[in-house]
Amino acid sequence: MTGIGMEAARALADKVEAFVRDVVAPYERDPRRDAHGGPGEDLILELRDKARAAGVLTPHILPDGSHLTQRETALVLAASGLSPLGPIACNTAAPDEGNMFLLGKVGSAAIRERFLTPLVAGRVRSCFFMTEPAAMQGAGSDPSMMITTCRRDGNHWLVNGHKCFSTGADGAGIGIVMARSEEPGTEGGACMFLVDLPDPAIRITHVPDTIDSSMPGGHCEVAIENLRIPADQMLGNAGEGFIYAQVRLAPARLSHCMRWLGACRRAHEIATDYANRRMGFGKLLIEHEGVGFMLAENMIDLKQAEVMIDWCADVLDAGNPGTVESSMTKVAVSEALMRIADRCVQVMGGTGVTDKTIVEQVFREIRAFRIYDGPTEVHKWSLAKKIRRDWRQSHAS
To answer: Is residue 72 predicted with pLDDT exceeding 70?
Structure first.
């Protein structure tokens, strides 16, 4: 990645930040929400029209189709994350941002033209069908357990199975489907396909209520029944789907960290303002050591999160797959941001658990983030296995 340079990236991030603070934040109490609390389609379209007019729609992808470096992206995505609505408005939200990255890296020219172009333009939303129901012992944190299958049928592939936690599937126009191949030579390997949505063969069976509410379309459960996909809508080659998933997941984990860093910066600002205005026991809350120390700890955790994000971004920009580094960063940043969000609620007391500010929403979103894209414990387990492998190699006779 060549990017635009850090100075230009900072200027772009400043532009995004001004847009999110001045234009997007006033919409945070807009009642146009879907049944699960996420922004409704009318609200999304209105915000994206404003972002397009302000020149900050999909700011991480340049007019020629190239992508900012990860280090540059960190500045821009953190700025978009200053409001829970910011990533949706600027078209930097999950799963679209990760899907755009993947299509730009792996998609054929025809796939990029048909599926990536409308995503970058903000005209449609997308979803990623990978996770499967625990009740069926399907793929979750362990993708090798995938039970959704695909088999060749002439010039098409036939897909059958079930998926869950398919974020944004309700209302999406594009889907990426992962399935385990039953074809000889690729048997057991995963395949990825691009599909137009809605499709009658992909049926939403349930949209659960969840702790978070920043993403449109809910976290859907779907049944896939005899879905016929033209062979030229396969992403890459048959049997290599797990490889492509890693192409997407390492940067996607980091992007989550970037966006939620912005949200926690804003929550910290709100808690700091509250503590500097609210009186208690004869003095401002900030002058009470218990409150002041919590805000001081927030400053430390915010800086540590920023440093981890920049370190992982540098690794990815250097061409390293970043699997280990992104796991370390996902754990460190999500746990640090959880501490920050929790302290912000605590500093604000009763006000912190109400909808008078976005602090309580940020707390809920960060709690979910500790699970999404791999729970903390799964990443630690993966890192522990690497420690074991490295030790064995270093002590091999």
So the answer is: yes
